[in-house]
Specification:
By secondary structure, the chain is of the alpha/beta class. It contains 10 helices and 10 strands. α1 packs across α2. The two termini are 21 Å apart.
């Protein structure tokens, strides 16, 4: 059984003597409940690169983990870039965007085209270089075409940014076990993103954008696995057939 995050289901499977592959998300999940789920699993699967793992995770947990980056994107995008375009991404899990704060950021950088996807309040006055698109069907295409992406540190967005090789300004949101904060700190330590703890003052944006453009794109290349979904599927099939394969590959 593949257990997607739920400790309770992992414990139930253990009581029923059913082997499990436990999906472990980011953050420092070293509480007793999670550690017991990890101990009971045949193997652990994490949908991110090993270099993004929280350094505080016990060595035995990391050794038991199969890291599977690239699950949300099968290949690096070939979408043409929109020069001088900033894409701000909001998902369902957060509070959404402040339209007036976005308008202020756009006014402070008149040479840039700001596009915003996801839930956002309407600004009282919208500058010409700000487009609020709301929900879009092809978020990955918007991310791939952007010169620079601004958003949180959830797995979906981070994996999409890595897959497209976009420059990234990361604003982690509060989550249990510091899931997003932990990943953001690792992105910053690797030089894969510019990380800020809260929405900045409008006057700070030009400096942040310049810092993000100076990031080395080779870091994202190292974190990318273009065949991630297929490799994860092959790993699960091998686990079902043969028991626990080598987890650290």
């Amino acid at each position: 059984m593949v257990v997607d995050v739920s400790v309770e289901i992992a414990m139930l499977a253990r009581l029923a003597a059913t082997p499990t592959v436990y999906v472990r998300l980011s953050g420092l999940r070293d509480d007793p409940a999670h550690l017991e789920a990890f101990r009971g699993a045949s193997v652990i699967l994490s949908p991110f690169h090993r270099e993004l793992d929280d350094p505080g995770m016990p060595d035995w947990v990391r050794a038991k983990t199969r890291f599977c980056p690239g699950l949300s994107a099968s290949s690096r995008s070939v979408e043409p870039r929109r020069r001088d375009t900033i894409l701000v991404v909001y998902g369902k899990g957060g509070a959404g965007g402040d339209g007036d704060a976005l308008a202020a950021a756009a006014r402070a950088s008149p040479g840039l085209d700001w596009r915003v996807i996801g839930p956002v309040s309407q600004p009282s006055s919208c500058p010409d270089n700000l487009s609020i698109l709301g929900w879009v069907e092809e978020a990955e295409s918007e991310i791939a075409r952007a010169d620079l992406v601004v958003g949180a540190a959830g797995d979906g967005l981070v994996n999409a940014v890595i897959a497209t090789g976009s420059r990234f300004i990361c604003l982690p949101e509060p989550r249990p076990f510091d899931e997003q904060v932990s990943k953001a700190h690792r992105l910053a330590a690797l030089g894969a993103a510019v990380v800020i703890e809260r929405w900045p003052q409008a006057s700070d944006w030009l400096g942040l954008i310049a810092a993000a453009r100076d990031l080395d794109p080779g870091v994202l290349n190292r974190l990318h696995e273009p065949d991630g979904a297929r490799r994860a599927a092959d790993f699960l099939l091998a686990t079902a057939r043969e028991g626990m394969p080598r987890a650290s590959a």
